[in-house]
Amino acid sequence: MTQKPIKTCTTILAGKDATIDGSTMIARNEDGGEQSNPQRFVVVQPEDQPKTYQSKISGVKIELPDHPLRYTSTPDFDQGQGIWGGSGINEENIAMTACETITSNAMTHAIDPLVKGGIGEEDMLTIVLPYIHSAEEGVLRLGQLLEQYGTYELNGIAFSDKDSVWYLETIGGHHWAAVRIPDDSYVVAPNRFNIDDFDFESEDTHCSDDLKALIERYHLNPDHNRVNLRHIFGSDTVKDTLYNNARTWYGQRYFNQDNTVDDPEYSDFPFIRRADFKISVADIKFVLSSHYQNTPYDMYDFDSEGQGKYRPIGINRNQEVHVLQIRNDVSDAVAGIHWLAFGPNTFNALVPFYANVNDTPAAFKDTTTTYSPNHAYWLSRTLSTISDANYSSYLDIRDHYEDDVTSQCLRVQMDTDDQIDKQTDVEKYLEQQNQQMADIYMKRSTEALGALVEKGMYLMHLRYNLDD
């Protein structure tokens, strides 16, 4: 089996009663290794969906159902190791984000070893999203595939429709569990097993048929009067305290000011919480871009002893960030919004692309493996690299840039929502509006890059105080 790329992420989920506008939202940073990994934003048409799917990494072959749906996708540009679709919304406004790399423990691996010839993150979006008609159906289809083919890695996957949000985690090679997130709740999930209390009898849970028997047979439950899947199948290591737990701490600290445990290394933060306020896309973007601001652990507070102690959420390894929003206050034609930005999140800006289209803007669809600032991915990379070199001096430029892109794109979105019922060719109209927002992004990003260069000239060390 080919070595799979490194992908580590942070996920945020919000039910429809937890958000400011009554939409469901599933969001994730797609993080990779230190090297660049150019991403694309595409639409996959039914005729382009394979009949027989073969994984590049594991080699597994899967016969796919007839009548796939059209869907958006954010694949890797270089598909030498597979598609890695990552995120998307299909034509029935069902969303999927795959995957969040998670952890487990030695006992789980001993009982149900990972399967070298199984499915993995490379495959999941492509073999699931085109064939589902609800979020719950996504859970059940992926669960069946996991049981049939097994998996070679541990992942968390989220699904949503206009009414519900579901989160599934794989357990060992063939097992899995999923939870419906309550409508009034949110989740912040780092790279560890996240699901805690689990009710096998609830209508809001699903799992592999023998999971309960497996726990009983091997005496896996350490708790007296509860079934906590994180305690049973998860990890609780020193690496978790530094790499994972602090991300949950900071996210929950943002959404809940009364957080009772103010310890970044605490290992038992609740999986599901209710926020102090209605959550917006801007709130999710802030958390997914964060680097422990206003704490002793801020990555840019170089005078603090805590600087750099914990793995931040916004990081140089961010390849893209998406917020998949299914709205309930508009017509189905414009309900699905695939918010997207490339590169490190601390320095990028989300664009609210409509998902009900047949094509995507060239600057986001096309890219290259080598540097090319005419493409959105590389332009974002350029902004982040320069901005990071002198964060405090460039802060105003960065903030104004994100505000400008967001406000201008939201204005386009408001106008589009108002005009959609007058359109005879909805998909074509939405493609034009997406192009308008892509143009705003590229123009404003180029202007911000110019402002960084201009200011940077005055910050150079290669200077002398005497003029001619």
UniProtKB/TrEMBL annotation:
Signal peptide: none annotated. Keywords: Dipeptidase, Hydrolase, Protease. It holds the Pfam family Peptidase_C69. It catalyses: an L-aminoacyl-L-amino acid + H2O = 2 an L-alpha-amino acid. Its EC number is 3.4.-.-. PANTHER family: LD30995P, SECERNIN. Belongs to the peptidase C69 family. This is Dipeptidase. It comes from Staphylococcus auricularis.
